[in-house]
Amino acid sequence: MADGTRQAGGVAVIGSGGIGGYLAGALERVGRDVTLCVRTPFDRLVVTDASGEREVPVRIVADPGAVGPADWVLVTTKAQDTAGAEPWFRSLVGPGTRVVVIQNGVGQAERARPHLPAGAPVLPAIIYCSVERTAPGRIAHHGGTRMTVPAGADGAAFAELFSGTPFEITQEADFVTVAWRKLLSNAVVNPVTALTLRRIVVFNDPAIRELGRGLMDEVIRVANAEGARLTDEDAARILDGYTRMPADGGSSMLYDRLAGRPLEHAHLTGAVVAAAERHGIAVPLNRAILALAGAASGQGLAGDR
Ligand SMILES: NC(=O)c1ccc[n+]([C@@H]2O[C@H](COP(=O)([O-])OP(=O)(O)OC[C@H]3O[C@@H](n4cnc5c(N)ncnc54)[C@H](OP(=O)(O)O)[C@@H]3O)[C@@H](O)[C@H]2O)c1
């Protein structure tokens, strides 16, 4: 460990969706002491990946009053649910606890900090991993085992925590660019699939590719005003990547829309629009997407009866 004294163990994972369930399984498999902190209780965590199906013997807790301070707290709720995790933070975060916010979007640490004890170390993490919760406690991994964290002592300790797992942890000095590059993709693939109710194959449609490119051009201007270093090549590479992905691939926002759950749009496209406003940059396409996603969030046709 970076400070030479702590043991990598005592990990609390807040959120038992695709990401939280999969990370809990990966850490338990290499002997970490994992507690899964859930909102909706269930009995068993079962993870399916390339190596098969496995029941993961982690502790599953639904009552924040039933846990004490952990060495590590991994926040894997959707971005809009970060504040709602505050009761968990009150129990889990003590002196020496490191908090890692593993979410899409930007400003992960800033989002959590107002809900944490003053001075608690909090690290943002970007995850590259396609994983789906198919039922409560049932997690299906489709591919990808990479995370990026800011370079530094906490980032090094986080990499050590995941040693022995399939996860490759990159420690990055220019984390702003990493986060915005992921958002460049998420601000396009998520709302476009969710709003069209189409899988990734929708990007084979030339008009949708053109829309995607227009959205990305706006995001790049905003990202670079925020200090990231994105180029047209990033956009071209991401759009080309969509056409090489399995045609039946989707996005977490598509799955959330199909299930009538709230969408993460305010922290993806909404983050682009908010930053654009700060810099006086016009982003009409992203504004239109934000309005449509806002109207669709958590709604099905039944909502209009
Ligand atoms: N899934 C992917 O492939 C993927 C890939 C890259 C990045 N990401 C990002 O990773 C983050 C997590 O995504 P996800 O797909 O894992 O989301 P998810 O499947 O919707 O899971 C989120 C989990 O958080 C739980 N939660 C919400 N509030 C809570 C609270 N107060 N206490 C305890 N648990 C709480 C939810 O509980 P309920 O069971 O009650 O709903 C749910 O189990 C998002 O920012 C997403 O954009 C996801």
TrEMBL record:
EC number of the protein: 1.1.1.169
Keyword NADP: yes
Gene3D superfamilies reported in the protein's UniProt record: N-(1-d-carboxylethyl)-l-norvaline Dehydrogenase, domain 2, NAD(P)-binding Rossmann-like Domain
Molecular function terms from GO: 2-dehydropantoate 2-reductase activity
Pathway of action: Cofactor biosynthesis; (R)-pantothenate biosynthesis; (R)-pantoate from 3-methyl-2-oxobutanoate: step 2/2
Annotated keywords: NADP, Oxidoreductase, Pantothenate biosynthesis
Domain Ketopantoate reductase N-terminal: 11-151
UniProt function note: Catalyzes the NADPH-dependent reduction of ketopantoate into pantoic acid.
The protein, known as: 2-dehydropantoate 2-reductase
